[in-house]
């Protein structure tokens, strides 16, 4: 039995919460005051903290003033496990805490037209699936998700398809290495260390060519 | 996906504890200890440090600093701790020490690692899982990025600086304009910049969506690096310099994208909204949502105006401030402090300001500034002269904005709440920040030079 670095992703069906904002940055996803933790857990409660609550959050604060205007607090989306978002999701700071907060809140997948590079990478290192879809499809999904009864979407990673409860189906692209990683949950470090000899050989050559890079 | 070998790995207290913990849980050791360099910057106070770590009031921040102390000791990683004169913002410290060299691959768990691209290094931010991966394997699993050539032509006018140049560029290409790309900055305006100015430009590549932004090698760069503590010496230095000059891009190189920006008529730039592409000239007015052709952008603009407490048509240079912050990995180097001090000299901070802070990028920058008497210029004017750290750029310590407060800031992000819950940020150059501190409103520094 191989230990996985995170829960594997194969198929997932869930309620979709529509977050109708472009350029959602990682400072919004998890504000700075929560980054003082030295742990990898406990961030879910503070996901989108300054949008979800009216009062300023601090680590461990429990008595909070809910912002009823924010979509995550809408009764329709209480069971949501998929976020529908606009372009350039996850821009800004490299904080992986943003991905941890999303997963720990209970989200497994994001649907958006585009993502910032560092956030996109961080997602795959934790078992969160960021799916890129055409703007027109995203627009369609927003209309469906904002109906009185919430939309569910089924994500099939093996087939690289999504299908909504309203009948929309679409195919998405994903790099094969990243797909493999999500479906197996393999520890990236262990995978890289399978190439240990190659890395060592490279290092010897590199040191000969550019000795000034090595102080040891 | 490929494996990229990493030459230099920079660490700080906020994004490393979970990586070291992972390393320990898996009984792994750092692959090459001497490639790592650590310091504390993000969550530390910038006030009196005579009591060292025990003087940190915030118990959670203190634990984070102690954790880095312990990890560096346990894994024998070179570390500039809170009381070390060389401590500072990691992206100021690396270049200052010569730990950043041309041709290197450099990573750090911080998105502003792009700063080091000013040295012809491929440098970018990574997440904490990748920090652990680099510690354990010296490599990164990486997808090759596309190339984006950005040519900056013209001469910057009086009162217009590297910061204005990069803000104007992000305004042009947008916050996702360079996603998936590495930017290469070229052109006369880049060649004319000081090394500090080049770092300011590369620093904010990430605000244009590019993980990395880099520049070519010239004599100015080589001169900057010579004799720095981590730089090679003697025969090795000569060998390195010869190699570095081979790194410059061939004339016939092909790029995936290409943009040109002429800065010869550029005004000082100011951000008005809640992302770094929302930028106007200092002598302009606040835009209206209707000015944006795309319905999505108009909606974003409306939301930003409301958050910022601004109305369309307001003159930018009449906007009143509560605080001014000069610091951050974008603008806290000696040249930044010199430019700010020229404006401040013999003047006083406006009485309406609740705070005006100068936070040098490192202990060595602070010392240099004090040798030049800049600290006295600032203190005499009514600025607070602080200890080095990230400070109010991200407000993880007590340096922050309170709800509704408005700040002219030399940092890099104007996101909602970035400088404090409900705080309002205007990104500017150090000279503009200095001028604005004197007047108490956003100010055209050209009128004060």
Précis, in short:
Chain A is of the alpha/beta class. Chain A has eight helices and seven strands. Chain B starts with a strand and ends in a 10-residue tail after the last helix.
Task: Explain what this protein looks like in three dimensions.
The complex is a heterodimer of chains A (216) and B (449). Chain A is α/β, with parallel strands linked by helices and 216 residues long. Helix content of chain A is 30%, strand content 16%. Chain A has a 7-stranded mixed sheet. Chain A is globular. The mean pLDDT of chain A is 95. Chain B has 14 helices and 18 strands. Chain B has a 5-stranded parallel sheet with strand order 4-3-2-5-6, sandwiched between helices. A 5-stranded parallel sheet of chain B has the order 16-15-14-17-18. Chain B has a 4-stranded parallel sheet with strand order 10-9-8-11. In chain B, helix 11 links the parallel strand 14 (323-326) and strand 15. In chain B, helix 1 (17-25) crosses helix 4, helix 5 (162-173) packs parallel to helix 7 and helix 11 runs parallel beside helix 14. In chain B, 58% of the residues are buried. The mean pLDDT of chain B is 97. Chains A and B meet through helix 4, helix 7 and helix 8 of A and helix 1, helix 2, helix 4, helix 9 and helix 10 of B.
Write the layout of secondary structure elements.
The complex is a heterodimer of chains A (216) and B (449).
Chain A: E1 11-19, H1 26-29, H2 49-52, E2 80-85, H3 97-105, E3 109-112, H4 117-124, E4 129-132, H5 135-145, E5 152-156, E6 161-164, E7 169-171, H6 176-184, H7 188-193, H8 196-209
Parallel strand pairs in A: 1-2, 2-3, 3-4
Antiparallel strand pairs in A: 1-5, 5-6, 6-7
Chain B: E1 2-5, E2 8-11, H1 17-25, E3 36-39, H2 59-74, E4 78-80, H3 90-97, E5 105-108, E6 122-125, H4 128-137, E7 139-142, E8 146-153, H5 162-173, E9 181-186, H6 188-192, H7 195-203, E10 212-214, H8 219-225, H9 234-245, E11 257-262, E12 269-271, E13 279-281, H10 295-308, E14 323-326, H11 334-344, E15 355-358, H12 363-371, H13 374-381, E16 384-385, E17 406-409, E18 424-427, H14 430-439
Parallel strand pairs in B: 2-3, 2-5, 3-4, 5-6, 8-9, 8-11, 9-10, 14-15, 14-17, 15-16, 17-18
Antiparallel strand pairs in B: 1-7, 12-13
Helix pairs in contact in B: 1-4, 5-7, 11-13, 11-14
């Amino acid at each position: 039995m191989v230990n996985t670095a995170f829960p594997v992703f194969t198929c997932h069906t869930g309620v979709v919460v529509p977050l109708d904002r472009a350029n959602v940055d990682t400072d919004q996803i998890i504000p700075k005051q929560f980054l003082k933790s030295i742990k990898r857990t406990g961030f879910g409660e503070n996901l989108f903290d300054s949008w979800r609550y009216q009062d300023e959050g601090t680590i461990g604060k429990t008595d909070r003033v809910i912002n009823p205007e924010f979509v995550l607090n809408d009764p329709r989306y209480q069971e949501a496990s998929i976020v529908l978002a606009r372009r350039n999701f996850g821009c800004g700071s490299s904080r992986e805490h943003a991905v941890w907060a999303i997963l720990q809140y209970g989200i497994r997948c994001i649907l958006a037209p585009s993502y910032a590079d560092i956030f996109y990478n961080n997602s795959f290192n934790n078992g969160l699936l960021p799916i890129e879809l055409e703007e027109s499809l995203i627009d369609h999904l927003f209309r469906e998700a904002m109906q009185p009864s919430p939309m569910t979407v089924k994500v099939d990673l093996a087939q690289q398809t999504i299908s909504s409860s309203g009948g929309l189906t679409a195919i998405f692209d994903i790099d094969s290495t990243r797909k493999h990683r999500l479906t197996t949950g393999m520890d990236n470090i262990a995978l890289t260390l399978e190439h240990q000899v190659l890395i060592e050989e490279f290092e010897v050559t590199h040191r000969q060519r550019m000795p000034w890079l090595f102080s040891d | 996906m490929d494996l990229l070998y990493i030459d230099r790995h920079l660490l700080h207290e906020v994004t490393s504890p979970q990586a070291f913990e992972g390393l320990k849980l898996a009984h792994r050791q750092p692959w090459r200890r001497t490639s790592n360099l650590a310091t504390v910057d993000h969550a530390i106070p910038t006030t009196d440090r005579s009591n060292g770590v025990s003087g940190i009031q915030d118990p959670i921040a203190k634990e984070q600093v102690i954790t880095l102390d312990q990890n560096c000791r346990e894994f024998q990683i070179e570390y500039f701790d809170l009381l070390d004169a060389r401590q500072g913002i990691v992206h100021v410290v690396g270049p200052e020490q010569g730990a950043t060299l041309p041709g290197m691959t450099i990573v750090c768990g911080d998105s502003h690692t792009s700063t080091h691209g000013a040295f012809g290094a491929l440098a970018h931010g990574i997440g904490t899982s990748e920090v652990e991966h680099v510690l354990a394997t010296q490599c990164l699993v990486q997808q090759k990025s596309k190339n984006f050539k950005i040519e900056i032509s013209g001469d910057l006018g009086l009162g217009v600086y590297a910061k204005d140049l990069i803000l104007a560029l992000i305004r042009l290409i947008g916050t996702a304009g360079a996603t998936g790309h590495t930017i290469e900055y070229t052109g006369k305006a880049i060649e004319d910049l000081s090394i500090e100015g080049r770092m300011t430009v590369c620093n904010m590549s990430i605000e244009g969506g590019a993980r990395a932004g880099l520049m070519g090698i010239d004599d100015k760069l080589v001169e900057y690096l010579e004799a720095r503590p981590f730089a090679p010496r003697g025969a090795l230095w000569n060998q390195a310099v010869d190699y570095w000059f081979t790194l410059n891009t061939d004339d016939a190189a092909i790029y995936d994208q290409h943009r040109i920006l002429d800065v010869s008529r550029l005004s000082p730039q100011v951000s008005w909204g809640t992302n770094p592409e929302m930028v106007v000239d200092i002598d302009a007015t606040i835009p209206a949502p209707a000015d944006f052709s795309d319905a999505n952008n108009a909606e974003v603009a409306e939301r930003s105006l409301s958050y910022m407490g601004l109305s369309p048509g307001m003159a930018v240079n009449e906007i009143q401030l509560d605080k001014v912050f000069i610091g951050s990995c974008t603008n806290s180097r000696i040249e930044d402090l010199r430019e700010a001090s020229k404006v401040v000299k013999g003047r006083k901070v406006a009485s309406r300001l609740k705070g005006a802070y100068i936070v040098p990028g490192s202990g060595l920058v602070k010392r240099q500034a004090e040798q030049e008497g800049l600290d006295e210029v600032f203190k005499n004017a009514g600025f607070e002269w602080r200890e080095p750290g990230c400070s109010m750029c991200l407000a993880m310590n007590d340096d922050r904005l309170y709800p509704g407060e408005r700040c002219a800031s030399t940092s890099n992000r104007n996101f909602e709440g970035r400088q404090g819950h409900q705080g309002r940020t205007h990104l500017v150059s150090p000279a503009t920040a200095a001028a604005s501190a004197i007047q108490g409103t956003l100010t055209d520094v050209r009128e004060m030079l």
